[in-house]
Design a protein that fits this description.
single chain, alpha+beta, 2 domains, 3-stranded antiparallel sheet, globular
Length: 257
């Protein structure tokens, strides 16, 4: 699959949960969300950019999605999309940036908010109802044990912090990573996150250097950021374009703050 370039994704997401839409719509969305969730999980497992496992439009339509479903998910901030360019004379064409959404020749991935939304929609599929006990039906398994990217409610309003003077990446009372020697590229990224108040994603803040591929440098720096953690609480990842960095909490890890 040709590597896509990220396009504009509609309006800002709104605070919507799976309970805010009708049962009929939930059922219609399940097939497509299942595919998107699978790609999201594969990318997370292999620690690659999400676009490595993007789902193409034809597959989503076969799974039951329509163009209006995709437009709604994009507008809500649950899905990101990119248009694919057809190769020309054996070379991959670079798609135009900010190309308007078109249902043909596109691929799609879930955002972190979209992954949490998908889990809400797919919860009944993941938790079949077992025979009743004492007159009450019980659920088999627990969705909370399944890997969900969104942090727990107790951590949603909390963020890491970068102490430039101490050279410490912290979360509350926990020291996640401490630098004993200068690591200019890593520190530059952490400083950028701190200055922007830790958004989910930032653009590559590393300055351009002659004869140095910025995408390879960013990839190598992200790998270094994920090494030598005193407490494995968060993870950094590329955005799949080589031009941005994500961070997210790791599942099932707690640290007193």
């Amino acid at each position: 699959m040709n590597r896509p370039t990220l396009s504009l994704n509609g309006s800002a997401p709104k605070n919507v949960t799976g309970s805010d839409i009708s049962v009929v719509v939930k059922e219609m969305l399940k097939g497509g969300l299942s595919l998107l969730w699978r790609g999201f999980e594969y990318a997370r497992d292999l620690e690659t950019g999400g676009w490595e496992f993007a789902v193409e439009d034809d597959a989503l339509f076969q799974a039951g999605f329509s163009a209006i479903d995709l437009r709604w998910l994009i507008a809500r901030g649950y899905v990101e999309f990119a248009q694919l360019a057809a190769p020309s004379e054996g070379k991959e064409q670079i798609p135009e940036k900010k190309r308007p959404f078109a249902t043909k020749n596109a691929c799609f991935i879930l955002t972190s908010a979209g992954a949490a939304f998908a889990m809400q929609i797919l919860a009944q599929t993941l938790q079949p109802v077992a025979p009743a006990e004492n007159g009450k039906a019980r659920q088999v398994g627990d969705v909370s044990s399944h890997a969900v990217v969104e942090p727990s409610l107790s951590r949603q309003k909390q963020k890491p912090s970068w102490d430039r003077d101490r050279k410490e990446l912290r979360f509350g009372a926990c020291v996640i990573k401490q630098f004993r020697w200068a690591a200019v590229n890593q520190e530059t990224i952490l400083m950028a996150f701190e200055e922007e108040d830790w958004p989910t994603r930032i653009d590559d803040p590393l300055p351009q250097k002659l004869n140095l591929d910025p995408k390879n440098r960013l990839h190598d720096t992200i790998k270094c950021l994920n090494r030598n953690h005193k407490k494995r609480l968060i993870r950094f990842s590329g955005d799949g374009t080589g031009e941005g960095i994500y961070w997210n909490f790791l599942d099932g890890v707690e640290c007193a703050s």
